[in-house]
Every structure is written in C-alpha cells, then in structure tokens.
Amino acid sequence: MERVSPHIQTCRYIHTPSSFARQSLLYVQEAGHLKSRDRHISRRSHLESYLFFIVLSGSGTVSIQDTHFALRSGDHVFLDCRQPYFHESSQDDPWELLWVHFNGTSMDGYWKYFTGHQKSSIFHPGNASPFQLLLEELLTLEETRSSNRELLENELLHRLATQLLLWQKEKDTDGHTDSTLSKLQEIRSYLDEHYTEKLSLDELANRFYISKYHMSREFKKSFGITMGNYLTSLRITKAKEMLRFSDLQIETIARNCGIEDNSYFNKVFQKAEGITAREYRRKWRGQ
Prior knowledge:
The chain is α+β, with helices and mostly antiparallel strands. Helices cover 49% and strands 23% of the residues. It is built from eleven helices and eleven strands. The strands form two sheets. It has a six-stranded antiparallel β-sheet. The protein has a five-stranded antiparallel β-sheet with strand order 1-4-9-6-7, with no helix packed on it. A hairpin with a 2-residue loop joins strand 6 and strand 7. The longest helix is centred in the middle third of the chain and has 26 residues, at 149-174. The N and C termini lie far apart (60 Å).
C-alpha cells in the first residue's frame, strides 16, 4: 500500500527489465526523487525487491519487521522488501528522498553479506556520501532511456551494492584501536607465513597475547572471513599453484600445504573448487 498526498512532487521511473536482465544482471525496478510538502506513507511486504533510499532533507520513520526507527537528513536505508516494512514522512518536517528498487540473481548474496556485517539497515555515512551520486546516475539513465541502459545500470547497481559492503567494512575497521588493528594484521601475516604448519586458536592466542574468542571475532569483523576459512583458502591457493606448475604427487602437495591427511585434503579441495585436485590439474594443464 502507498498513500501519496497531492502535495508531493515525485519524479518516478518504473522499469520492466528484459529477460536477459532478469537472468543475468542487477536491474532497476523503480527509481525516483520525491519531495514532500505533506505526509507520505508507504507500507509493503512480500515484494521481490531490494530498496535503497537516502533522506536528503526532512525527517520521518521507518518500521522494519515491527521495529520503529526515526530517520533524519543524511540517513541511508537498505531494505529487503520481502520482509514487512513501513516508512512515513513527518507531518511537520516532510522529507525529500532519492530511492531505487532493484533486484537480480546475485542480490541474495549481497544481502546476506550485508546483514552478516551490518547490525542495522540504517546508516549515516556523513557528508561525502558516494551513494547519492550513484542514485543520480541511475535516474539520469532511466530518464534518457538509452538502448544500453540495462548494462550501464547493472554496473552502477553492482557499484552501489559493493559500496554498501565496503562502507560497513571500513566502519568496522574504524571501530578498532590502532593497537588492535595492528595485532590483527600481525596475526594475518603470521598465517600467511606459517600456513603449512599445524595451527590452533589456542596457540595463536598465546603467541599474540589475546583471547582466542576476541581474536576470532575481531578477525572476521576486520577481514570478512573466519580464521579457519582464511587458512583453508591459503592452503588451497598454494595447492593450486603446485598442481599447475609442479609434477609433485597430490599426497606430497597436500603435506606441503599443511594437510597431512590426503583424503581430507581431497574433500576440502573439492568443496572449495567443485572438482577434485586431480581434475583441476588435468583441466588447467590442458591434458
């Protein structure tokens, strides 16, 4: 449901994506610029769409799954519209918004990553927001309706989604003290150099004088990956190099990567690459 007062200035573009865009791209469903002189209400749920909007001026509220938040100028909001949401402009201080509804085959992954790192769908990046420029470019493309706009909008939407994830990672990093960030970088460097050895959280915590629980939590927050998965990625990457550029037996390669059990190595490799180590070697060597 959407109730719009006659005292609303709206520039709205509704787009019907091509079958190619639906199958392969991120695509715009609707984008616009709204300037309200009165109350504006929108309530939706079970909508196959993601909504991103910026409050350019004014104030209002948004309700996400029955939790209410006050919004002010400069707030940025990113929503999964499959979940119930409601937003309303203030009667006394009506807002001005830029928004885009969009979707695409990769958006579930972006959203899961975002919610895994972001505690709230509402954030306030300050004056130098890159997001407004992206929305303005999307509106220009919708207005001009060029023949290749779906490809160009796909690029902008990927940049928008990427900026959402990068902004949160930078925010998480800014929350660390210099000493904490320095220690996390030391730990990562140690893993880079000692991935062939048998490593445990207890050993690393003792070596770097840090709680293993704090270390694990802050490592994932800073680098976007658990310590275990980071170590596995290092080992698999090194194994791929040796599979392609050496004639070593797979059992030897596994040991050289810090994995003594060959059957476990094969299981981990196939989970990471989708094929066995033997198949990987054969395909990349063109055999």
